[in-house]
Amino acid sequence: MRAHPRTGGSRFVSAGFGAHPAKPGTPRGSALLTPCDAQRPAERWLVIDRKVYDISRFHRRHPGGSRVISHYAGQDATDPFIAFHLDKTLVKKYMNPLLIGELAPDQPSFEPSKNKKLVEDFRELRATVEKMGLLKPNRTFFLLHLCHILVLDVAAWLTIWYFGSSTVPFIFSALLLGTVQAQAGWLQHDFGHLSVFSESKWNHWVHKFVIGHLKGAPASWWNHLHFQHHAKPNCFRKDPDVNMHPLFFALGKKLSVELGEQKKKFMPYNHQHKYFFIIGPPALVPLYFQWYIFYFVVQRKQWVDLAWMLTFYIRFFLTYLPLLGVKGILGLHLLVRFIESNWFVWITQMNHIPMHIDYDKNVDWFSTQLQATCNVRQSLFNDWFSGHLNFQIEHHLFPTMPRHNYWKVAPLVKSLCAKHGIEYHCKPLLTAFADIVYSLKDSGELWLDAYLHK
Fold first, then answer.
1. Contact 360, 372 (CB under 8 A)
2. Which of 141, 155, 362, 432 could link 350 by a cystine bridge, Cβ 3.0 to 4.6 Å?
3. How confident is the model at residue 92 (pLDDT cuts 50, 70, 90)?
4. Average pLDDT of the chain?
5. Cα torsion at 273, 252, 239, 266 (round to 10°)?
6. In angstroms, how far is CA 250 from the centroid of its own chain?
7. Phi, psi (5° rounding) for residue 427?
């Protein structure tokens, strides 16, 4: 495909394909979008609304992180750009210096790997969502959610203060604090996705408070990982949430068979559905996240995040140390992280591990999200327990949408799925939990068969 550059020189760029100098004989003042084997590490181009941008240097300064924008190098990023940014007009002003050309008028706007009609229909759905006001938040909803977290936090302290530190009040207080951590996790997720305020800066500031002061974790770490996950869900080497493959687990049918054919065995994957109960839900937060986040902020010099994290630990120790002593407070903290970890892992993985996991195939935004996500049936409990991530499909399609509006857009998404013959997965909560284990068992057996016989 040809493109008209705004600057001198010629390049090859492609959707999913790389940026290379033009072949001899290519007229100066043109650029070709053609497949190539790989993109040069120093050059990163992408397309938004038929305009070609050179992000080779900018990616390091990208507010959402270097990797998330780099995952779209060589691809059309129009739909993810629309999905992730609130004030697109403002953002485009900062993009103008990166503009190096436009697709030629006779060149198609859609890559061959993408369903043109589905892309058009989804963009029409997006316009409908905006007209319906489904991207506008009800701030009272989030204020009440914050208040209920603070009430639970105070109730946990009052329980030990009034009833003492014997076993029953100790465990009850830990359950309350575990609930605080889980629910604060869902609330920081809202601010991190820019879902509460109309201006990004207010979301960022409150996000630091919620994740830093209420949870003791850094906002920069969450942004670094989570935006990549949303940009390329279940895409190996692009979604950090599937980085446990292959060191700890064999994930996805194709990747598991590939691992077996390569005769790689880092773990006994045919038993992974069993050891998941040991190194998965109970261990992720207390044995990994709890310590890695400190390394992350120090290594990246995120001193503001570190300061917010320290306020959490200072508050926790000052309030509970007089009541429990050193051993008691360390035991309480570990138990709370254990509860939080189980809650977090089961909820976040039920929507993704049982779904399609593969390398990035550069398919359209709608297909990318639908093949990697599934929903859990709606109920008041499921909504609260999962932070509305039981509507994972709608959340992934519209990441800045306030969660209290997911149920309103769900019928429209179902209709679009039906129109294009795409399965809309929705299941009961316990079935979703069980499917994590079943999918690990299946992929482990596929690995073993390929390891032994292929």
1. no
2. 432
3. confident
4. 91
5. 60
6. 20
7. -145, 165
Contact 101, 31 (CB under 8 A): yes
The percent helix, strand, coil of the chain (3-state, each to 5) is 60, 5, 35
Contact 446, 256 (CB under 8 A): yes
Residue 317 burial by Cβ neighbours in a 10 Å radius (0-12, 13-18, 19+): middle
pLDDT at position 417 is 98
Is the confidence at residue 25, as pLDDT, over 80? no
Which one is predicted more confidently, 333 or 23? 333
Tokens of 131: 């007209």
pLDDT at residue 82, rounded to an integer = 95
Let me know: does 344 contact 284? Beta carbons within 8 Å: yes
Q: Phi, psi at residue 191, to the nearest 5°?
A: -70, -40
Q: Cα 62–65–66 angle (5° rounding)?
A: 80
CB of 362 within 8 A of CB of 15?
Answer: yes
Predicted confidence at residue 108, as pLDDT, reads 87
pLDDT at 41: 53
Structure tokens, 422 = 């795409």
Please give the pLDDT value at position 90. 85
Query: How far is it, in rounded angstroms, from Cα 412 to Cα 262?
Result: 43
Tell me what the mean pLDDT of segment 305-314 comes to.
98
- Under DSSP, is residue 235 helix (H, G, I), strand (E, B) or coil? strand
DSSP 21-78: EPPTTPPTT-EE----S---TT--EEEETTEEEE-TTGGGG-TT-HHHHHTTTTSB-H
385/257 Cα distance (integer angstroms): 35
Could you tell me how far CA 289 lies from the centroid of its own chain?
16
Q: Report DSSP state, residue 335.
A: H
CB 202 within 8 Å of CB 168: no
Long-range Cβ pairs for the range 447-453 (8 Å, 24+): 447/250, 447/256, 447/257, 447/259, 447/260, 447/269, 447/270, 448/260, 448/269, 448/270, 449/257, 449/260, 450/256, 450/257, 450/258, 450/259, 450/260, 450/261, 451/259, 451/260, 451/261, 451/263, 451/265, 452/260
Q: How far apart are CA 196 and CA 142, in angstroms?
A: 7
Identify the pLDDT of residue 5.
52
- pLDDT for the residue numbered 8: 36
Q: How far is CA 53 from the centre of its chain?
A: 24
Q: What is the pLDDT of residues 341-398, one digit of tens each?
A: 999 999 999 999 999 999 999 999 999 999 999 999 999 999 999 999 999 999 999 9
Taking the C-alpha atoms of residue 250 and residue 238, their distance in angstroms, rounded to an integer, is: 16
Q: What is the model's pLDDT at position 20?
A: 34
